[in-house]
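Everyone, carefully examine this protein record:
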Amino acid sequence: MITVRDIAQLLDGEVIGDGTVAITGVAKVEEAGAGMLAFIANPKYERFAETTAASCVLVSRTFDPSKFSKLPAALIRLDDPYASFVIAIERFMPKKAEIAPGIHPTAVIDPTAVIGTGCSIGAYVVIGAGSSVGENVTLHPHVVIGRDVKIGRSTLIYAHVTVREECVIGQRVIIQPGAVIGGDGFGFAPKKDRSYQKIPQLGIVVLEDDVEVQANTCIDRATLGETRIKRGTKLDNLVQIAHNVTVGEDTVIAGSSGVAGSTKVGNRNMVGGAVAITGHVHTADDVKVAGGSIATRALDEPGATYSGYPAKEAGKWRKIEAASRSLPDMLTEMREVKQRLAALEQELTKLKP
């Protein structure tokens, strides 16, 4: 049995209330029932503290219980409730095995491929010649690994992912269903007859350790050299990373965003959904780009937040947006001023001898 006190000891938290209450599962604070562990990280959700049926809620150390007339059976105060909730899930409620260990009989593995110990390889997986798969790797059904691919240990690849030839996947990487790693970059040279000649895409993709790539994201191989996603970076669903792009460490890019060819994205960037970053530019470290923005030039101020089209420093963009809402009235006023000026000019003309 796992109790509130057990969780508090693991997380180095302070228990308020009954530490002997048993915890049997986890849930969102607004949906939790008896026996559930929940968390409140955003002050906007503190209102649920009085209505939740959870048996224990993780809260920040600034949470003030005296503001509420009714509270759950127990609270655990912590420095970071959100991060602590993740730790509690991993420790007390580990994920069940994805697929059975071993190699499914329908998998097609080239005799020259090397498979590490402890791997789980699902139905209809294909692994090409010369590829190496590290220890404890899980490949779900219908994964296709091309020739001479290298996959590090403890990596998890879900169904219908394709990793094309010679690409390198690090350790503890997670690739969600339908992603394509190492498809051809979009390289075509215009010809005199206005048709296009395909440019051979001879490079590779490198995903460093602890990268996560979400569903249906595409990371194109380099024309020459490599497209590289650095350690700890997370790419959301439907992200497009073009040829020869480098994305720095611990960067997050939200869904439906695209980074065009040869761009360098800095470390610890936070890129919102549906952002477009054009080719051959760069972003500084610790940059934030608001959702829906379009970056047409370098975003080169470390730690700055950018938004809009074309992307500008966020404070400047907000001022421009505020001013733009006044434009219709300003245009009306300008027309009125022009009409008055025209009338005044006519009167002045009449007064001339």
Summary: The two ends are 105 Å apart (CA to CA). The longest helix spans residues 327-351. The helical segments are 4-11, 81-92, 314-325, 327-351. Residues 189 and 197 are 5 Å apart (CA to CA).
